[in-house]
Design brief:
The protein is built from eleven helices and nine strands. It has helices at about 5-10, 15-20, 25-30, 35, 55-65, 85-95, 110-115, 150-170, 185-190, 205-210, 225, and strands spanning about 40-45, 45-50, 75-80, 100-110, 120-125, 130, 200, 215, 235.
Length: about 250
């Protein structure tokens, strides 16, 4: 991360609260706070990444992988997300090292946006929760006047990087924002700060249409709502339109 980029991130910590984790109610879906389960390491020959996606945590997992004599081929992750750049850093590293990704409990925001899609094989447990709710390319941002110019510089860089990232992994970059088009955006945004909805997900078939291929269901099913019925109303299932057509670089500067 450049010094300039680092300063932007520090200046906009509050602005990115929505994008990073949607809202604190994501913890309701995950069933426990990230802090209580945070762990970065290698266990039984597999990489483990639990907690917020940050530059620091990324550097730890990168270092452990480099130092490992026998390179793990699977990353087990449970994360409510993190800053956009850090999410893409982790996703690009997964891609560059041809890693598989398995969702332990929840993969939301930057985890669902960038880490899971970059995996060679994507493993879901029967109760793995996926949550999308927006990305660099979402159209509606609420930024205070003091930070608008800084934010504009940052988001322009992130949008171009995100477009290139998705083109590199052959995923339609509509993935992260399609659900927003199915809501009145104001109602959707307000709901994120309540208990009604924290985001949306897709069926396996629709994820594959968007470019998330090689999805393996470890338990022969993926139906997390049946195993976490009390959380089912927090994540809206979005269906792609019948006339949906896959497109690379759909959004581009």
């Amino acid at each position: 991360m450049s010094i300039f980029h680092g300063r932007i991130v520090k200046n906009l910590v509050l602005v990115f609260t929505f994008l990073i984790v949607g809202c604190t109610s994501l913890k309701d879906v995950a069933e426990s706070s990230q802090n209580s389960e945070a762990f970065i390491g290698i266990e039984d020959g597999q990489l483990i990444y639990k907690g917020e996606i940050t530059e620091t945590s990324n550097n730890v997992i990168f270092s452990l992988f480099r130092a490992s004599e026998l390179k793990p081929n699977r990353l087990l992750i449970s994360s409510q997300g993190g800053e956009i750049g850090a999410g893409m850093d982790l996703g690009q590293w997964v891609k560059d090292n041809n890693l598989d990704v398995e969702v332990i409990r929840v993969c939301a925001s930057s985890c669902a946006n960038y880490v899971l899609p970059a995996a060679n094989t994507k493993y879901l447990r029967k109760d793995s929760v996926l949550i999308w709710h927006g990305s660099a390319w979402q159209s509606n941002w609420h930024v205070d006047k003091e930070h608008r110019e800084t934010f504009k510089t940052y988001i322009t860089l992130m949008r171009q990087r995100e477009t290139d990232f998705y083109a590199n992994i052959a995923v339609d970059n509509l993935l992260t924002t399609y659900g927003q088009s199915k809501f009145n955006f104001l109602d959707f945004t307000l709901s994120l700060f309540g208990k009604e909805t924290v985001g949306y997900d897709y069926s396996v078939a629709d994820m594959e249409k968007l470019g998330l291929v090689n999805i393996v269901l470890l338990d022969g099913e993926w139906n997390w709502r049946a195993y976490k019925p009390g959380k089912a109303n927090l994540v809206k299932r979005i269906k792609l339109d019948n006339d949906f057509k896959f497109e690379l670089r759909r959004f581009e500067i």
